[in-house]
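Consortium newsletter contribution from the modelling node. Members have asked for a concrete example of what our holo predictions look like. Here is one, prepared for the zinc ion complex that several groups have been discussing at recent meetings.
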Amino acid sequence: MIRVDLHLHTIFSGDSSLTPKFLVNQLHAHPFIKGVAITDHNTLEGYFQTRKLASAYEDLLILPGLEISTREGDLIILGVDEKPRVPIELSSAIEFAKANKGLVVIPHPYRSLGIGKTAMTTKADAIEVLNPTATPNENMLARNLAKAISLPGIAGTDAHDPKEMWTVYTEVEAQLTIHSILDNIRKGRVKAVAASPQG
Ligand SMILES: [Zn+2]
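And here is the predicted structure:
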């Protein structure tokens, strides 16, 4: 079983203060979170730079990801190293993800920029049911949505600065490889966890 943060922004998002170097140092220092998906807004540059820095450590995994600004709201695609052009319709972004064997996650469905109930009619693979930038009620609605459409629920910090890091994580019954993590999220072998406050 491994623990990963599936939603985090680097400076390449334009609205985050987290540099790839800082992120890799923090990940290396963390006692049990060993993987992170870089989900910058509409760019993979932060992923490429973070992956390069993390390659110095055998026990860390950087997952490729994107948070795409679609016309209907935000969409996360994990496991692709190409990006679609924006602006884009939600349905086209999902088609892009499927064509590139990406995993489709609906982030913060009930927060601002969330796609809400539209998630029910998409071919999403997972719902983000725990995001600290959403309210407890919005997260509860997200959990109910995931249950209603029988999709796995994952957690992501949506961190844009140091104090937002590692507050939640996703446990996956998987090996520390991109393929194993994405495959086991698809199979629902996941749990969204709120980290207990430290010290
Ligand atoms: Zn985000």
